[in-house]
Amino acid sequence: MWQSFIRRFSAHYRIVLFDFPGQGKGRVLSGSSSVSLDEEVEILHEVAKITKVKDTFLCSASWGGVVALAFATKYPHLIKRLVLRSLGTKPNKRMVETIKSGTKIDSDNREQIAKTLINSFGENLPSPVKRRIASQFMAMTPERLSAFYEHGLLVIAARNLRDVVNFKEIHTETVLLAGENDTIIDLDDVKYLATQLPNCSIKIIKNIGHFMHLESDDVLEIYNEVLSQ
């Protein structure tokens, strides 16, 4: 997801990129395949300690924004600015329907699972990216697919961001990036979130959906403006 971001900014910034257990290349070595929000926050903290980062631009996408906000309530001294992409306070109706319909598809029908997700919120993705997503689903082990489903159910179970994060405790400068054409995050909800965070601004990006810079490299220039402020 972040390859084009790395190509654009690695010459000017130190970039730390990692996968949570059960996502991407991340592995759950023991115990349940389900990873809680509190566990994700502490994993992020361990990454910060190991890499010795400080004054960090913490950039996230979608659910990663929930983790970033929760992290900011516990470890604000490690963050210079939060840059949160495609984040609202709650999943909209289409997101809930997409996740629920995905869990009903035969787990062996990986092509249909990928197609359902892409048709719901990835229609604006370039064809090579769509093919890459499909191939990733085809290569998933049953355990990884199970973790993917559990994460989706966790997202809709959270219901409202206020239930898991105390907005008043977040004083870190925050920038919300919202795609005008995002089908699973309501724009009005992103605007509402911006009014609830004490030190927050919002940038609405025209003709862009949920996947932002995966849809157009032009979005990287907006990141550049935010990081350079």
Structure overview:
It is a single chain. The chain is of the alpha/beta class. 47% of the residues lie in helices and 11% in strands. The chain contains 9 helices and 4 strands. α2 (37-51) packs across α3, α4 (93-103) packs antiparallel against α7 (142-158) and α5 (110-121) runs antiparallel to α6. The longest helix has 17 residues, at 142-158. The model has no long low-confidence stretch (mean pLDDT 91).
The overall strand count is 4
The neighbouring-strand order within the major sheet is 1-2-3-4
The CATH architecture assignment turns out to be 3-Layer(aba) Sandwich
| SSE arrangement, N to C | HHEHEHHHHEHEH
CATH fold annotation: Rossmann fold
Number of domains: 1
What is the C-alpha radius of gyration, as a whole number of Å?
A: 17 Å
Percent range for helical residues? 40-55%
Taken as a percent bin, the fraction of beta residues is 5-15%
Unreliable runs: none
Distance between the termini: 24 Å
CATH class: Alpha Beta
* Count of DSSP-assigned helices: 9
CATH superfamily: Alpha/Beta hydrolase fold, catalytic domain
